[in-house]
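Design a sequence for this backbone.
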């Protein structure tokens, strides 16, 4: 190990007086930086309740591109006034501690490498590093108590040797992919101490039962059959009875405008009432649709709410309502031996879903990968054909735009007309979700992985959730525990996370990198190394001529490696 590399890894070089920063002033690439360039600011001072960290690597995300395109319309900016308060993006980061405030010296020390979880909860409210909290599009930044002592504890965690900076930065997106297939991604049981609304239909005296105790805090009953109402009154919960129309106002008041944690709909007659109930759910809420043969209309659902608020839309035929809950009926991972369709497979996140599906032990027997552009699909097949063959799984990739009719043909060939067991939509489009529904098996799982603006609605056949066990879900974000689980897979050799890196660049190439993500120029991730100030944006194949000493350390593919990263920093970092 060279002395130069040791100096960098240990953060032993003198700190600069200034740091380069890319501020974000609102919608459009023209508002990234000032006159298209980063600005120089004084190095932040580390207060007693802060730590100062160096940004070693930053993965550029489709969410970053979406924020640039949408500005204050991005749902998680909450209509921010960028003229008064510019933001700083960047949430997929590898960090190194360079200075420690007095209050944190027992936990941190200079040279300690950190991963970071962007979702920060403060007094129950969600804030996001790289959105509401200034992010990592800078060379140095301070982290305070909001990140270091959030409601759920510290949002940073140590990463010891054996993992590259790029892999640390990729922990967050890989965790988002991995947790999407976990039962922890959404709540499958009534919330203990929560607010539950049970709504029946006037005049319906169907027998319902619940083979589990209720541990909700408050239960609102609307037009519930007398037998079930009597059972609820016998539970150790607060009970409020009111008509359906009045219940929405009651829920609004009881929840402080947050919505009901759980809603049970008993044999609803109209899709409109189901749609209203979905709107009345709180974040991470669960709706149970109990229906046998009454509801057949599709239900309009706000796809943004489904995705960003991690809703669980469950169901059963009854009479036991408890049958809808839990992992026995609700599958979270891909169906073993099934057929998976990934819509939008050519981008970085789509490729991650494909890689995971090919590498898990009990994966699908066939994967249909579609993308509008053909070039990305050709690269995808070249990169993953070997892995598909070695895992004994069929990988089919094509563009439905270029080959109309092939999707129907492939789904029929692979499923016998039953439909896909799993459909993952990695396209930020509500219309794409609607297009996917006809190809889903009656008992299939449809996952909305890419976010869309609020208010974009899609008609979903939720009656299948009750009668066939179909699942409709959306996931966004991850937790520290999710990232640590991915980190363990990387360390064990079960996941080659850096395989998704497609291009690298330095600090001044940040805007070029964002433009490349917006244009979908590369088949994988753009990785920025902020300490390498003037490194231009280069695809991995372009390294052969531009930086041959780095290119020689790539794995066959070419694929990014820890050794290539080390050579890049050793040769091009200026202390």
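Sequence:
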């Amino acid at each position: 190990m060279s002395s130069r590399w040791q100096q960098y890894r240990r953060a032993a070089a003198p700190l600069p007086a200034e740091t380069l920063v890319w501020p974000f002033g609102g919608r459009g690439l023209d508002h990234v930086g000032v006159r298209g360039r980063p600005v120089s600011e004084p190095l932040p001072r580390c207060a007693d309740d802060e730590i100062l960290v160096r940004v070693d690597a930053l993965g550029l995300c489709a969410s970053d591109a979406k924020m640039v395109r949408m500005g204050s319309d991005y749902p998680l900016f909450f209509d921010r006034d960028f003229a008064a308060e510019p933001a700083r993006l960047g949430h997929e980061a590898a960090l190194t501690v360079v200075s420690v405030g007095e209050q944190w010296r027992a936990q941190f020390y200079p040279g300690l490498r950190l991963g970071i979880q962007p979702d920060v909860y403060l007094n129950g409210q969600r804030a996001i590093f790289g959105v509401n909290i200034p992010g990592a599009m800078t060379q140095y930044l301070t982290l305070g108590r909001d990140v270091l002592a959030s409601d759920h504890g510290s949002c940073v965690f140590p990463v010891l040797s054996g993992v590259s900076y790029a892999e640390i930065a990729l922990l967050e997106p890989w965790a988002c992919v991995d947790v999407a297939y976990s039962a922890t991604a959404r709540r499958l049981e009534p919330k203990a101490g929560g607010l539950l609304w049970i709504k029946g239909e006037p005049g319906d005296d169907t027998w319902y039962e619940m083979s589990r105790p209720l541990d909700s805090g408050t239960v609102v009953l609307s037009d519930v059959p007398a037998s079930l109402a009597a059972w609820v009154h016998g539970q150790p919960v607060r009970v409020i009875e009111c008509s359906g129309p009045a219940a929405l106002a009651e829920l609004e008041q009881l929840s402080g405008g947050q919505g009901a944690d759980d809603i049970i709909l008993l044999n609803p007659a109209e899709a409109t009432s189901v749609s209203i109930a979905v709107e009345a759910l709180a974040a991470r809420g669960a709706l149970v649709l109990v229906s046998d043969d009454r509801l057949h209309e599709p239900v309009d659902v706000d796809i943004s709410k489904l995705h960003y608020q991690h809703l669980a839309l469950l169901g059963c035929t009854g009479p036991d309502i408890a049958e809808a809950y839990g992992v026995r009926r609700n599958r979270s991972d891909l169906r073993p031996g099934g057929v998976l369709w990934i819509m939008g497979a050519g981008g970085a996140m789509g490729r991650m879903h494909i890689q995971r599906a090919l590498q898990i032990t009990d994966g699908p027997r066939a994967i249909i990968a579609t993308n509008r552009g053909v070039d990305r699909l050709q690269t995808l097949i070249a990169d993953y054909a070997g892995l598909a063959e070695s895992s004994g799984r069929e990988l089919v990739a094509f563009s439905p735009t270029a080959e109309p009719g092939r999707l129907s043909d492939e789904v029929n060939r692979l499923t016998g007309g039953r439909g896909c067991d799993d459909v993952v939509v990695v396209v930020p489009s509500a219309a794409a979700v609607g297009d996917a529904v006809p190809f889903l098996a009656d008992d299939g799982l449809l996952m909305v992985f890419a976010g869309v603006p609020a208010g974009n609605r899609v008609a979903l056949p939720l009656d299948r959730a009750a009668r066939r066990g179909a699942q409709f879900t959306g996931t966004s974000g991850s937790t520290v525990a999710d990232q640590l689980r991915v980190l363990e897979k990387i360390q064990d050799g079960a996941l080659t996370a850096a395989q998704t890196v497609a291009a690298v660049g330095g600090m001044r190439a940040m805007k070029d990198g964002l433009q490349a993500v917006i244009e979908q120029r590369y088949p994988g991730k753009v990785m920025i190394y902020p300490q390498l100030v003037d490194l231009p944006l280069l695809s991995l194949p372009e390294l052969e001529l531009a930086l041959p000493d780095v290119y020689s350390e790539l794995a066959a593919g070419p694929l990014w490696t820890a050794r290539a990263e080390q050579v890049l920093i050793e040769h091009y970092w200026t202390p």
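Residues 195 and 254 are 8 Å apart (CA to CA).
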